[in-house]
Amino acid sequence: MQEQQSLQVYKFGGASVKDAAAIRNLAGIVREHAVHSQLLIVVSAMGKTTNALEEIFQLAFTGQDFAPPLATLHRFHRAVAQELFEDKPAENEKLAELLAQLEQHLTELQQNPAPADSYDQHYDQIISFGELLATCIVARALGAQWLDCRPLLRTDHTWREGRIDWPTTEWNVREQLPDMLQRGPVVTQGFLGGTAAGQTTTLGREGSDYTAAIFAYCLQAEAVTIWKDVAGLLNADPKFFADTVRFPAISYQETIEMAYYGASVIHPKTIKPLAVRQIPLFVKSFLAPTAEGTRIGEGRHEQLSPAFIRKDGQCLISFESKDLTFISEENLEVIFGALAQVRLKINMMQNSAISFSVCTDYSAYRLEKLLGLLREQFTIHYNTGLELYTIKNYDPASIGRLTAGRELLLEQRTRQTFQFACRGREVSGLL
Ligand SMILES: Nc1ncnc2c1ncn2[C@@H]1O[C@H](COP(=O)(O)OP(=O)(O)O)[C@@H](O)[C@H]1O
Ligand SMILES: N[C@@H](CC(=O)OP(=O)(O)O)C(=O)O
Q1: Ligand 1 proximity of 14 Cβ (cutoff 6 Å)
Q2: For 27-36, 168-177, 184-193, 344-353, which range has the lowest pLDDT when averaged over its residues?
Q3: Is the pTM of this model over 0.90?
Q4: Residues contacting 379, CB < 8 A, separation 6+
Q5: Nearest ligand for residue 307 CA
Q6: 53, 166, 349, 360: which has the fewest Cβ within 10 Å?
Q7: Whose CA is nearest to atom 8 of ligand 2?
Q8: Domain architecture of the chain: domains with CATH
Q9: Tens digit of each residue's pLDDT (9 = 90 or more) over 404-413
């Protein structure tokens, strides 16, 4: 009798596919660790390709010359493919086709100025090429099947933050994937979805972790592993904090909160679909694939050690009523409505008698739209270039460590969580 194979979802992010050596390393992990499983491999754009595409898109959308940065992007992808498939030029045909399509889209956009309010929609059509190109190369390198996820992962029309239509997506995935997986590993794109009309959407920056969770949910996978350049989920980002410690095991609940506050190692939307179907999430290092990593799953904890989360690029906006009337529920309704309309997410908020303050991710474009909506009714002040720090499971020592020498512009504490916004400053050494 044939043994029933377990189904695993692996997700490889930008750092794990940043060049040909990284893709060879990925292939080694797949060979070593997935021999007894069916395997769906979700892949993000290579290295910093998404940022590069954002710049190229911005140039094209504003009618400027995008040729030099596009040429750099072409060269980079071609060089990686050449290094991996040097003796098989035909392997690069699909890649050449995608690069030509990208150039054509950009040229059309540059030559036919689109209305400003279609920016997000066009953004998705262009930015998605990062994942299409990367998966094309990785699938070839693995000799795996390439799957375009866009017809399967159905979203609405919320450009840049597509909302998943779960019933349709689950039906599509179950219809198509099991047969493919039976035949061998499948490589597909993170971060992308598609509307009913066949237009591409993206799921929010760094959303490929979420894609892995969506597929795992639909396929009722045994586990998801996201392969990162860190040893697992740590109590802080080692790029900014000294003496970090790894959590060997941690609950969905703790993780969702850390991700929500900005621990960029896991996209915040990733946890819920996994928790609903009790699918464990492993965070492992692609640099040390046999090391233990972190297991995220069911369960509650005794008090954990403090976790530190830093979010930069913040903006603190204060609204004051113009006639000294109190900030009432009616006023708040107007402010929240406007924030939702311009899609500015609130990371922290506080109100006093006549003023209401929110800390949000900064976007010049969205802030300008917000001011346009609320300027008449409120006096509005804002500061940009701020940092937001969150300490989960804080104690006096951890608060002292982060607040020493800083002027706090807004501060809040609950039983578990201490948060403050302050002016950003040059990082010299680790915190
Ligand atoms: N609590 C944390 N634990 C581990 N890594 C963290 C944490 N918070 C932030 N990070 C950062 O997340 C990075 C990995 O996530 P990311 O760069 O999104 O990976 P990828 O794009 O390759 O999927 C690490 O290099 C680290 O700097
Ligand atoms: N490439 C997309 C999606 C993503 O999730 O990337 P990564 O897995 O490298 O964070 C981005 O940079 O936003």
Answers
A1: yes
A2: 27-36
A3: yes
A4: 319, 320, 321, 322
A5: 1
A6: 166
A7: 13
A8: 6-297 (3.40.1160.10), 307-423 (3.30.2130.10)
A9: 989 999 999 9
